[in-house]
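Issue: copy button drops trailing tokens. Both records pasted manually instead:
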Amino acid sequence: MCADDLRFVDDGRSDAANRALRPVCESCPILAQCEAYAVAAPRHAIVGYWAGARRGVRPRESAIRQ
């Protein structure tokens, strides 16, 4: 599964790299729970690839400094 796979929490990945993660999600036994969590969490609370989709984004450092 994805629990220890850092590819799933890297929000700077390309679309092609994210598509490569989709088969992992599709075969996951907790996909429904993962999706429910991702949808319920505030957009800024989670980042990365959750339940077969890229979720949230981290603010860019330049935006944080403003």
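Record 2 (pasted manually too):
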Amino acid sequence: MFSIKGRIALVTGGAVGIGQAIAIGLAQAGADVAIVSPTADARQTQQAVEAVGQRFHAVCADLMKPESAARVVAEVEAHPGARGYLGQQRRHHPAGVGRALWRRRLARRNRT
């Protein structure tokens, strides 16, 4: 098993459903959580993450728009304490970020 304490988990679709369950599970495992959601309402996820003592950050973005993907990555990387982050990849990588670039960014962030 590996530790994710001190990491930031970037979860797409983390405001509801499976994404929300993943975000909460990662928080319970010790990660701070940043979620990406096209809607701004992530109060339930925020309450559950903070209830286990982890930090929470929500980014309102539509990852089908190429400019959103770059903004999300930059915002999460700029978050205080962002030593490294784990990325939950959806079936498709974010629009405008090629699969190879997305994997390189994740690998670079996870090396620290």
